[in-house]
Design goal:
Number of helices: 2
Order of helices and strands: HH
Shape: flat
Largest sheet: none
Helix content: 10-25%
Strand content: under 5%
Amino acid sequence: MSHVDILEQKDSLGRPFIGSLVFHVGLTVIISGAAWVTGSSTRLQLGDPNGGRFGAVMVNPVSIPLPNRGGQTNPLASDTKSQLPTAPIEKPTKKAAPIPDANAIPIPGKTVPKKMPRGMTRNQPETANSSRISSRTSSLPMQLH
């Protein structure tokens, strides 16, 4: 017994296309016919078609005082002057240089410590880049070089 898959069968698109075409043409004819039959006699007009014949009109603005409802004014919402005296401006003082340790041995040159490369610790001796890279990659099994 053979297995028949419905989705593998080809459907003809001719009849649905013709049906859709007839439907849309009919819908267009009905809407166009309804607009032609009603005509312009029942058209909805909003306002005067001539625009009122007045042109521009100057309007004088009038200020109307709004009543005060009373109540307390919000000090956070309105600008108020502070009643506190202003603090004196402090001059920045120069910090004294750190006192070196009496037991420390001075090293000539830079005093800034070097940044260590990634993956190195301070206790590890620093070697050349090629030996450091080859030591990392050679220990991995099943790796092509």
